[in-house]
Specification:
37% helix; 15 strands; alpha/beta; 13 helices; globular
Length: 408
């Protein structure tokens, strides 16, 4: 029989956070082996629960959530998002500018599908959260990666952005706070990006899903608060700040200069209607979450669990010969560098396979985040301190063996 093959549209689409190395880990688990997973920011899996008021509100409302809602979402949670925009100083946002989705991920893909034609380009950071690159490619566009500078705390290389703009460039993606590096961009850099977007009439797509997961007293600036003459599409949700990944409750905000974007907004409305609506129980969690006690502050405080685990992971990793890390100011990850002289890695996916096979620790290789060289990996510091210390100790052992093997 003729083989049934996948769509050619998937040729340049990958998502290695749940890729081949994870498949191998699942196989090992099926064989009875215990794997320490540092590959994904699935917060509840590590015993960090969502706020109880969100859970109770969803339970209480569940009997009344069987019907479709408006395609953009229920009024009350969208109004809560408008109030949140006011707190973040994003001007001019009305309920009609807010779209609720099955997590921010659905809305990211929707924003690309509504915009891109074959040959259109979107500037995406390297390293990036790979859903962005995949969504651009799946929508028929071309992802063009601009570099973030590890030597400048992983902030975007503005000159590289300027060099990579062409007549086909339609927009620029800004992931702030950043996944996978944990960097928080200073306002001065954000203002430079806004100016670039202004000069070249680009849409700014702002992924701000970690905007409350901040350490060391830093504050987050929404890039959409910095101008009203540029079009911004901002994404956020409950998955990370409210530890509610599985509820799939996210939102997208269109703000700034919408005068010339009527047709694009019509496309967003069309795609929003085609999926009928976001899941209703998840929508009902949004108003309660945004209006309730912000328990994320306890977790990121100097004595909080996330801050303590960040510090532990940073201290342990930087004690390993040939490993350097920019200490994250935000999010749940760090992106260590392996000195190529000590670790001559040709294929970092194979490196991740070997670590998994030898030490039963699962990480994601740096090229899975569209980084340019096989010399980084992403580590999730969500496990409790004992498990995290055990995992990094195993990584240390593996790297020690790796150095010996490759020094011969």
């Amino acid at each position: 029989m003729t083989p049934i093959v996948k769509s050619a549209k998937l040729a340049n689409v990958c998502y290695d956070i749940r890729g081949p190395v994870l498949d191998k880990a699942r196989q090992m688990e099926d064989e009875g082996q215990k794997i320490i997973k540092l590959n994904i920011g699935n917060i509840a899996a590590f015993g960090i629960e969502p706020p109880d008021e969100i859970v109770q509100d969803m339970i209480r409302n569940l009997p009344h959530t069987a019907g479709y809602t408006d395609s953009k979402g229920l009024f009350a949670p969208r109004k809560a998002v408008v109030h949140y925009c006011q707190e973040k100083k994003i001007a001019g946002v009305t309920v009609d500018d807010v779209y609720l989705g099955n997590g921010a991920s659905e809305l990211i893909t929707m924003s690309m599908n509504a915009l891109l034609n074959t040959g259109d380009e979107i500037l995406v950071p390297a390293p990036d959260y790979p859903l962005w690159t995949a969504s651009v490619a799946l929508s028929g566009g071309t992802p063009v990666h601009y570099l973030c500078d590890e030597g400048a705390d992983w902030t975007p290389d503005l000159d590289d952005i300027r060099r990579k703009i062409t007549p086909n460039t339609r927009g620029i993606v800004v992931i702030n706070p950043n996944n996978p590096t944990g960097t928080l961009y200073p306002e001065s850099v954000l203002r430079e990006i806004v100016e670039i977007a202004r000069q070249h009439q680009l849409i700014v797509f702002a992924d701000e899903i970690y905007d409350k997961t901040l350490y060391d007293g830093v504050t987050h600036t929404s890039i959409a608060s910095l101008a009203d003459d540029v079009l911004f599409v901002t994404f956020n949700g409950l998955s990370k700040n409210y530890r509610s990944c599985g509820y799939r409750a996210g939102w997208m905000i269109v703000s700034g200069d919408k005068r010339h974007a009527r047709d694009y907004i019509e496309g967003l409305n069309m795609l929003s209607s085609m999926r009928l609506c976001a899941n209703t129980p998840g929508q009902l969690a949004i108003q309660t979450a945004l209006g309730g006690y912000q328990s994320i502050k306890d977790l990121v405080a100097p004595t909080g669990r996330l801050c303590r685990q960040r510090d532990l992971a940073y201290n342990l990793l930087t004690q390993i010969p040939g490993v350097s890390v920019v200490k994250p100011k935000a999010a749940l990850y760090m992106f260590p560098r392996l000195d190529p002289k000590m670790y001559p890695i040709a294929d970092d996916q194979q490196f991740a396979y070997e670590l998994l096979a030898e030490q039963k620790v699962l990480i994601v290789q740096g090229t899975g985040f569209n980084w340019i060289a096989p010399d980084h990996f992403r580590l999730v510091f969500l496990p409790n301190s004992d498990d995290l210390a055990e995992a990094i100790g195993r990584i240390d052992q593996f790297l020690s063996h790796y150095r010996r093997r490759h020094s011969l």
